[in-house]
Design a protein that fits this description.
The complex is a heterodimer. Chain A is α+β, with helices and mostly antiparallel strands. Chain A has twelve helices and 21 strands. Helix content of chain B is 64%, strand content 0%. Chain B is globular and about 45 Å long. The chains are: A alpha+beta, B mainly alpha. Chains A and B meet through α1, α2, β6 and α6 of A and α1, α2, α3, α4 and α7 of B.
């Protein structure tokens, strides 16, 4: 790290860039309402779209907004900050999903898409249970083309090709390759397509953030994507013939002291189940004047509305190109009825007990393997409230990198005998995260270390939890309830 | 909460004390001096426009905005590994080896390494800056310790 630090310490902002930063203080702070900035951006994009003959709306063959009879504003013109949003709608809006309203003030008239009337009643989700991934599940990252095809339908789509060619480099143009109707300019996108063990698409996740707002969109073929949350009842609104259930909540989800508006929706369109969540900080787009008047930015739900409006009933919205994947990493999920059966797996046998512990109870064992991801086998005995579990993890990919050995000469990091009371109260915060189940080098293991890990089991007797990292990278985890330290040590010693 | 001008009394002090650490962080993520300078400017502009009046820790807030800005700039490449870019200022021979090791990580993980080992932020602070759970930050750092043997051998 020293060389890295030395290198970075040499790197400094150029004098020119420094002068630009200092000059920011010379101009009055322009507290133009971000809501008006957003209207301006919408208007600029809409004007561009109209100038391109409404290409980029991703509705191949669909009705297009008027561009011959409606004035197109200069995208560079400054909007009248006193301008009001009129409720006038372009004459071709009927039957046209891309209806426009005019922002009129002074001499300017700008056009931008109407937002669907979607109700987001207040309601929070409750945690239900963890989602069980399908056996052999794996994920591929989404590439730009995957997202483009998802939203445009095809890279052969003439609207996509024309929009991409025409919009590059234009002043005020969108530079992203997603349909402009989404107004995702400035949003960084990441995503993954997750498959089951047979290469069938299970769920697609697309996330976006512009540094202020963020969204997560989950999609699945043929049904709503599984969720670990129980959604509230919500309210159903119809958008382009699709029933959309939506709800909202208002709370600080990331602990930065700023509450956010969370707009959530769930719907099925064109054989694709969608769960979408758009998160907008309270401070986004609220000017000083609006704050003093107690107003709320009317555009908080804008991106949610525009996404729903775009995909609902849109034949170009597709997951067809992701439905199957041929590059299925080898995997295995096998259960064992007896310890002897598990010990037949020779890679794992040296780390497993040779016999069941005394009075151990009912046996269960399982092997889980996926090439490049994980390769582990656990054996478990259960008796009433006591579990005795030995889990052997062979090095596969980077799965065992999480196990960082504890310094056996620093007992404050792992020795229960040094503390009174619950870990969350007694153990210093610096050690707390790893204290529940520390990892020890195999060479450091001893009966004394096992004794240091003895704690009271909440249903009586003692409990032990820790991992052992062997020199060859194998990690063995021990969860031992109702045993003595000597009995636990007897499980470990033959494996060292 | 009423918004007044966020321009602090001593703008020069805020800029001078933070410009280089923000620049170095952006450079370690983006790999281009020009992009890094733009990202730093964006962060200060965002500060003027959006920072809360009663901000307790302006440097940490600026860093968070910067990291988010870098993520937006990289888009889908945020989690993809790329080669050591030619746009980086030329490193010395020993520096190159450590930089190449760092660049074997995707930007998402490089950011965590840089913020932890160079900037000295805690995993809790990094989790807020990068919008991932603290446990995930710790896992990434733990994983990186194994992969970046040379880079972190003297830490």
């Amino acid at each position: 790290m020293n060389a890295y630090k030395t290198y970075l310490d040499r790197q400094t902002l150029s004098p020119h860039a420094h002068d630009r930063l200092m000059a920011l203080a010379d101009t009055p702070a322009k507290k133009k309402s971000v809501s008006l900035q957003k209207w301006s951006a919408l208007a600029a994009c809409a004007a561009l779209l109209l100038g391109l003959g409404a290409y980029g709306l991703g509705q191949a063959g669909g009705p297009v907004p008027p561009h011959s009879s409606t004035p197109v504003a200069d995208p560079l013109a400054s909007p009248d900050p006193e301008g009001d949003v009129s409720t006038s709608v372009s004459s071709s809006e009927e039957g046209d999903r891309y209806g426009f309203v005019a922002l009129s003030g002074a001499d300017d008239k700008m056009l931008f898409p109407t937002l669907p009337d979607i109700a987001y009643p207040a309601g929070g989700s409750e945690m239900a249970a963890s989602i069980a991934l399908p056996p052999g599940s794996y994920a591929n990252p989404l590439h730009e083309e995957d997202v483009e095809i998802m939203l445009w339908g095809s890279l052969e789509n003439k609207d996509y090709a024309h929009f991409k060619a025409q919009s590059q480099g234009q002043v005020g143009s969108v530079t992203c390759t997603v349909p402009a109707a989404l107004f995702w300019d400035g949003f960084g996108l990441t995503g993954e397509a997750r498959y089951d063990g047979e290469g069938n698409l299970w769920r697609v996740t697309l996330q976006g953030s512009d540094g202020t707002e963020r969204f997560t969109i989950e999609m699945a073929p043929g049904k709503l994507p599984p969720t670990c949350l129980v959604p509230p009842e919500g309210e159903i609104s119809e958008v382009n013939g699709v029933d959309v259930t939506a709800w909202s909540s208002f709370y600080d989800s990331d602990g930065d002291g700023v509450k956010e508006y969370h707009y959530e929706s769930a719907f099925l369109t064109g054989g694709i189940g969608v769960r979408a969540k758009f998160v907008v900080p309270e401070t986004a787009g609220v000017s000083q004047e609006e704050n003093e008047n107690g107003s709320v930015n009317p555009l908080y739900d804008m991106h949610s509305d525009l996404f729903i409006k775009y995909v609902c009933g849109n034949p170009n919205f597709t997951l067809d190109h992701l439905l199957t994947d041929d590059n299925i990493p080898p995997w295995e999920e096998t259960s064992f009825e007896t310890l002897e059966e598990a010990r037949q797996r020779t890679d794992f046998a040296p780390y497993l007990p040779e016999a069941a512990p005394e009075n151990a109870g009912t046996f269960f064992g399982r092997l889980s393997y996926q090439e490049g991801e994980y390769n582990y086998l656990f054996v478990r005995w259960t008796r009433m409230y006591d579990n005795i579990e030995v889990e052997v993890r062979l090095p596969e990919g980077i799965s065992n990198y999480y196990f960082e050995p504890t310094d056996v000469n620093a007992p404050e990091c792992y020795d229960y005998r040094l503390y009174d009371g619950p870990i969350s109260d007694a153990v210093p915060e610096a050690y707390r995260a790893d204290f529940y189940s520390p990892t020890f080098h195999a060479a450091d293991m001893s009966l004394e270390v096992v004794k240091a890990r003895e704690t009271a089991h909440d249903t009586g007797g003692s409990s032990f939890r820790f991992h052992v990292l062997h020199e060859n990278g194998v990690v063995v985890g021990y969860t031992c309830d109702g045993m003595t330290a000597e009995a636990v040590w007897a499980l470990i010693q033959p494996t060292l | 909460m009423p918004h007044t001008s966020n321009r602090p009394v001593d703008w020069a002090k805020l800029v001078t004390e933070n410009e280089n650490r923000l620049y170095r962080t952006a450079l370690s993520i983006l790999g281009s001096p020009q992009e890094a300078e733009d990202a730093v400017q964006d962060a200060f502009v965002t500060y003027l426009e959006k920072a809360p009046v009663d901000l307790e820790n302006p440097p940490a807030w600026l860093m968070r905005v910067l990291v988010n800005g870098c993520r937006s700039r990289l888009r889908l490449a945020w989690r993809q590994v790329t080669a050591l870019p030619d746009t980086l200022p030329a490193p010395g021979p020993e520096e190159r080896e450590e930089l190449e090791e760092l660049w074997s990580l995707p930007p998402e993980e490089r950011a965590a390494i840089h913020l932890f080992y160079y900037e000295g932020y805690s995993t809790e602070e990094i989790s807020q800056m990068t919008a991932v759970a603290p446990g995930t930050v710790r896992s990434r750092l733990s994983r990186a310790r194994e992969r970046l043997r040379k880079l972190l051998s003297d830490v």
